[in-house]
Design a protein that fits this description.
The complex is a heterodimer of chains A (98) and B (464). Chain A has helices at residues 5-24, 31-42, 46-55, 59-89. Chain A has 98 residues and is an all-alpha fold. Chain A has a domain at 30-89. The longest helix of chain A has 31 residues, at 59-89. Chain B has 3 domains: 1-80; 90-269, no CATH class; 292-461, TPP-binding domain (Rossmann fold, 3-Layer(aba) Sandwich), CATH 3.40.50. In chain B, 59% of the residues lie in helices and 7% in strands. Chain B has 18 helices and 6 strands. In chain B, strands 3-2-1-4-5-6 form a 6-stranded parallel beta sheet. Classes of the chains: A mainly alpha (98), B alpha/beta (464). At the A-B interface, α1, α2, α3 and α4 of A face α1, α2, α3, α4 and α8 of B.
Chain lengths: 98, 464
């Protein structure tokens, strides 16, 4: 696996700035869905777990990788599901301003 | 298809997934586009997982598929929990992510040791330290929120010293391992010590601090996932981790500001001790109390009403009764709004979700900065299960433990009504001078049944 430290640091820094600017704009109204959505997205760590489990380099690694996939996958499914359920509930009022 | 093209196709799927993740968060900025954000995230996730399955080097599919199916089976009920259980579900999901990251880090170490370059080993240590402490810390937070564990902060002498030494010991282990990655015997320790630290870190934290702590754990989990991206050389993981880390960081900053406290104060401040001594200085003073009948006639005579919900509303499951009250008052032509403090409830945005669940339109839910200028023109403020976030001592009394904390200026309204079980000071144990004002009426009772009584009085009175 190629590992380029400096490039990775650039990527990390830029992603941090993007995250900061994008998330700063999320309304406080949606802070709970924000947290559950970022939880689901961050469970992309499942990709790493799949590689570890699938390469089957040792039984130990396969076992750990398999458990890791279960943990991350439960977050992906649960996270997207609950975020969508929450967001469905946010409705505007009918025009009742005086 | 030419097999040599596969790595490029996989990278392309990661690239598109990354773009979709950023868009998902961007669309989440407003309720009108937010659901599109979820779909973008889902498509990105399917692409990334799908692409990974084609990776060269993956030889064993049986366990991957079993694990993916099992994770889905566990994930569905976790996604279908009651809205009142969302804080503990969120804490539990931090724990799952941290578990995943720690396990992958561990496997990676034993596969590669001792041939691990120093930088990679340092990041790997960061990954497993943050992962392990987030794992047990989040499980503790889940236990406290689910009320399996005592919610009161548990403090003892030398607590900060114990915690700091645990942390220092983990860092020392990390230094040793970076120096010589061949010391496989040290690796279990660098997982075990942070596991203990995670427990000890959450022990002194009380329920009122949960919004900050959940955000902070979110941030740790994100950073540990980014560290995993460095270890595995995956930009996709680095970016997802950085996005999540900054989200948790921003929320922690907002929550800390809303409590007028620094990070270190939340984690090492032992807030509970200060509060207990403050509670001792309390004296008996007269309060005005009122019945549901009196409360309803005051509400009916008002033009503008602001309802301030707090954790007590969530505990009493009163949000649907509150919706009925909102409907009755709105029908009478009264302007009803909700004033929501950033740390009301047990996680960021907790109250908004509960009120949205009860079908209250979100344009009626105003955050602290938006609602505060309205209080001097408000006829009646109805506080349901909130305490510290309305305490005027935070503005005036320098000796108060919460002095300087931004609050909802409910005392500037013409009449204040507080639904409360009894005069016992709330969770934080701080006396609230608001309750002794001449304009304040205490409505003693359970939030749900009291609001129900007010609604009955208001609808019964409508026919006269």
């Amino acid at each position: 696996m190629k590992f380029d430290l400096i490039n990775s640091l650039y990527v990390f820094m830029l992603a941090g700035f993007i995250g900061f600017e994008v998330i700063r704009r999320v309304s406080p109204l949606l802070h709970t869905p924000l947290m559950s959505l970022t939880n689901a997205l961050d469970a992309i760590a499942v990709v790493g777990a799949i590689v570890i489990a699938g390469e089957a380099k040792s039984t130990f690694a396969t076992v750990l990788g398999t458990i890791a996939i279960v943990a991350a996958m439960s977050n992906i499914v649960g996270g997207f599901l609950i975020t969508d359920r929450m967001l469905k509930m946010f409705k505007t009022g009918k025009p009742k301003k005086s | 298809m030419n097999p040599s093209a596969i790595p490029y196709i996989i990278e392309a799927s990661y690239l598109v997934a990354t773009a979709l993740f950023v868009l998902a968060l961007k669309w989440l900025s407003a309720p009108s586009t937010a659901r599109r954000g979820v779909w973008a995230g889902e498509i990105g996730m399917v692409l990334a997982i799908g692409g990974t399955l084609f990776r060269h080097g993956i030889v064993e599919y049986k366990w991957i598929l079993i694990a993916l199916v099992l994770g889905t089976i566990i994930g569905v009920p976790l996604g279908m929990v009651q809205m009142t259980a969302v804080p503990q579900r969120t804490a539990l999901s931090h724990a799952c992510r941290a578990l995943c990251v720690t396990l992958v880090g561990t496997a990676e170490f034993y596969l590669s040791a001792p041939y691990i370059p120093p930088f990679k080993m340092a990041v790997l240590c960061l990954e497993v330290i943050l992962g392990s402490l987030t794992f047990t810390g989040s499980l503790m937070a889940t236990g406290k929120l689910q009320e399996v564990l005592p919610q009161r902060p548990i403090t003892y002498r030398g607590q900060n010293l114990v915690n700091l030494s645990l942390l220092a010991f983990s860092i020392l282990l990390a230094v040793l391992l970076v120096h010589n990655p061949g010391q496989k015997a040290l690796f279990p320790l660098i997982i075990f010590i942070p596991l203990v630290f995670g427990v000890m870190m959450i022990v002194p934290i009380g329920g009122a601090d949960m919004p900050t702590v959940i955000s902070l754990l979110n941030s740790y989990a994100g950073i540990s996932a980014a560290a995993m991206g460095f270890v595995l050389g995956s930009n996709l993981l680095i970016i997802a981790g950085a996005l999540d880390g900054s989200s948790g960081f921003i929320l922690s900053v907002i929550m800390s500001k809303a409590m007028n406290r620094s990070f270190s104060n939340v984690l090492f401040g032992a807030f509970g001790q200060v509060q207990i001594s403050a509670a001792g200085a309390k004296e008996e003073r007269p309060v005005h109390s009122a019945t549901a009948e009196e409360a309803s006639s005051i509400l009916a005579a008002a033009n503008t009403v602001v309802i301030v919900p707090g954790y007590g509303m969530a505990v009493a499951q009163a949000q649907h009764k509150v919706r009925e009250l909102f409907d009755v008052l709105t029908k009478k032509g009264i302007d009803v709004k909700f004033g929501i403090h950033p740390v009301a409830g047990r996680m960021p945005g907790h109250m908004n979700v509960l009120l949205a669940e009860a079908d209250i339109p979100y344009d009626r839910l105003l955050d602290m900065d938006a609602i505060n200028p309205d209080f001097p023109q408000t006829d009646v403020v109805l506080i349901i299960g909130a305490n510290d976030v309305t305490n005027p001592a935070a503005r005036t009394d320098q000796s108060s433990p919460i002095f300087g904390m931004p609050i909802l200026d409910v005392d500037k309204a013409r009449t204040v009504m507080v639904i409360k079980r009894s005069m016992n000071p709330g969770f934080a144990g701080i006396d609230n001078p608001l309750y002794y004002l001449d304009k304040t009426l205490m409505l003693f009772g359970d939030a749900k049944s009291f609001v129900g009584d007010i609604v009955r009085e208001l609808t019964g009175g409508a026919g006269h």
